[in-house]
Structures are given as C-alpha cells and as structure tokens.
Amino acid sequence: MTQHRLEVADVFRQHGQEFFTRWGHTLTAPQRKVFRDICACRTAALGARFELCNHCSHQNIQFHSCRNRHCPKCQSTARDQWLDRTAKELLPVPYSHVIFTLPGALAPLARQNTRLIYNLLFRCVSETLLTIARDPSRLGAELGFLAVLHSWNQKMMTHPHLHCLVPAGGLSLDRSCWVHSRKRFFLPGPVLGCMFRAKFLALLAVAFRRKKLRLVEQLQPLQRPGAFDRFVSSLRKPKWVVEVRAPFGGPEHVLKYLARYTHRVAISNGRLLELRDGQVTFRWRDSADHNTQKLMTIDAVEFIRRFLLHVLPPGFVKIRHFGFLANGCRAKGLELSRKLLQASTYPNTLSIRQRNAIDRKCPCCGIGTLCFLGYVPAEILNPLPTSISVTLDTS
Fold it and tell me: Which helix (H) or strand (E) holds 339?
C-alpha cells in the first residue's frame, strides 16, 4: 500500500475548526465554498462511481472530485482539456514570456478590491503590449496573446502578476504580412513598465473618484482625497517590474511551458512536506537567491488563511486572450496568420479520449478496462468524520 502524501485538504480538515474560530468572520461566501469543496474532494461526501474490470472482475470505487478551480487535486484534467484546445491555436513561431507585476504596496488594495484591481491589471497589460508593439520603431505589428493571472508568490502572500505568452511577432498593421521580431529581443521591458505604470495609476485614480474602491481597516486613511493622491504619487517613483524573456522554442515547447502556468493554485500538494504540532512545512523557491529551493514552516491556521486569500470572485476569468486572438476575432486572426506563415497544422497531442482510456486500465491486472456500472450516492457511503462536518457547517 502506498503511503498517503500530505495534501492541502489534510491541513483544512485537521485545523479547519481552529481556523474558523479565528478568521471565520472575515471569510466571503466563495472562500467558504472553496474550503468545503477541498475538504470534500474525492471523499465519500460527494459520492462515487462503481467500476468493474472486464478481465479480472476487480471492483473499484472512485470518489467524485469537487471540480473547484481552486482545488489542487482537480486541475490536471481541466488543464489537459484546455491544452488540447489551445494546441490548435498555436503558431509555428517562437514565443516570448512577458511578466507584469504589481508593486507590493498595492497588495492590500488588491485584497479588498479583488475583481476591480485584477480587471485593471488585465486591461492595462493588454493595452500596454498592444500599443508598444504597434509602434513602428519597436515592432510595428498587431499582437495576439494570452495572459494568465497569478495572485500569489512562493510564500502564498498576495503578489498579483500576469504571465503573458506572446508570439514573437505579429500581423503587419495593414495585415499583408507577418512581422517577425528579432531572435534575441522582443520588446523593451523598461518601456513596457513605464507605460504599464502610467495606465494603471490613471485608471486607479478614476476608480477612486468614482467611489468604486473599498478602503477599510488599514486602508481607511486613504478615503481622504489628499491621502489617496499622495499614495498614488508614491507609486510613480519606483520602477514597475516587467520581465521580458527572450523568445524560445516552437509550439511543442509552448505547450509544456503553458502547462506550468495555467490552472495553478496558490500551492500544489507536491510542495507540502509535513504537518506536525499545528505547523505546516513546505518547499518554496527564493528568486532573490538564484531560485534556491528552501523550506518554510508556518502555523496551520496561517497556512489556510494565506491559501484562501487567492480565491477569485465567482465568474472571474483568469485566462484571457487579446489582440488578433481575442474571442471575437480569434478564428479569422488565426486563419490569416497561418496563411501568411504558410502553415496550416498544429502540434499533435494525445487527445483527452486517449488519455482517459489509458487512465481507465485496471490497476489490479493491468490488462482489462474498468467499466462503469453506476453511481454510489453519498448517503450510503461512510460519512465524513464528525469534526470535519462541524467545520464545514461553520457559518
């Protein structure tokens, strides 16, 4: 029997009651739902499906997943399905990875105004990239790219940033040819950072004047116009970080690259090492120390609090497309791009159906296939422990 590996759900179940006692009054309804779903994922609480091997008659009960996009255990299938669709939209050109990061001083504002700040982030990043790329002195082309939101750093603290995957080139402004960027250079990071900062702070000031910002607790002093203006002015002085990595690889490399950044949550189960005496130990990567792998130990309640900080508002889209890949014109943009690049194919990938067929092989004999026989309702399966039920019902 394989040893059970520590999961985020284990921390939630063992220390959820303590967490709710301390922080329950601050949680939103979406955060409570994420907590409940992660605790119940792949347990009897959600029911199961009953399967039988057609070769050795091995019986298998597979507990249902919660399918919550914040659950560490439910991302692989969603990621694979998304990658299958995205593979058909990749172009046979190198791609560049561009990362836009908000300053740490904006983290408290982002926590209180999640939807507004993250929407502003997407808007300003897209406008910045599209504007600079259209400049004839830079690239002189229309880009088409996708952007993925991450709101955390390796320590699970608030650190909003966008990962943008951009073809190293674009459609000429008259749409008559494909404009290639230089092999070792895409767009200037300092220029992108200056425009990104100016656009974001201008729109932030507009949101304040229209009273769309929530400013409570430690941000309450910023409710005064003078104080808010000084706060905005202080953000104009430092450079805003925009990392532009040299173009790399083709579509096959891009698919592997995408798999690392899409459908991620604040921390994966694979980074957890130990839960002992109310303390959680996990691995983290220190970018300030040459990406050295280090260990961090924090209180389990604090671990849960940090994880739930990154629950997105209901319906919020964290992967978005822009330029000629925007939803309204993607088909025509791709068709024109492939025509100009004289390419019509996309990378061959293992389909979801093929992967599912492999996954359904019998774990007992390795020859037969697990055949679905029916669903098992949660009511007739073993209930969750009482302590977990109390935690889930806390309001």
Answer: helix 330-341
Does residue 392 have a pLDDT over 50?
A: no
| Cβ–Cβ < 8 Å for 172, 178 | yes
Q: Is the pLDDT of residue 353 over 90?
A: no
Q: pLDDT tens across 110-140, in order?
A: 999 999 999 999 999 999 999 999 999 999 9
Characterise 177 by phi-psi region: left (phi > 0), alpha (psi -120 to 50), beta (else): beta
Distance of alpha carbon 154 from alpha carbon 171, whole angstroms: 36
Could you tell me if 74 and 68 are in contact, meaning their C-beta atoms sit under 8 angstroms apart?
yes
Residues 6+ apart with CB under 8 A from 270: none
Distance CA 394, CA 375 (A): 29
Among 53-67, 97-111, 333-347, the range scoring the smallest mean pLDDT is: 333-347
Whether the CB-CB separation of 362 and 56 falls below 8 Å is answered with yes
H/E segment holding residue 40:
helix 29-40
Cβ count within 10 A of residue 309: 18
DSSP label at residue 361? B
Report the mean per-residue pLDDT for the chain.
88
235, 295, 321 from 80: Cα distances, Å? 39, 30, 18
Output the pTM of the full model: 0.88
Burial class (CB in 10 A: 0-12, 13-18, 19+), 381: middle
| Percent of the chain clearing pLDDT 90 (strictly above) | 65
Which of these, 305, 264, 314, lies nearest to 115 by C-alpha position? 314
Residue 394 DSSP SS3: coil
Element containing residue 60 per DSSP (H, E) = strand 59-63
d(CA 188, CA 191) in angstroms, rounded, equals: 6
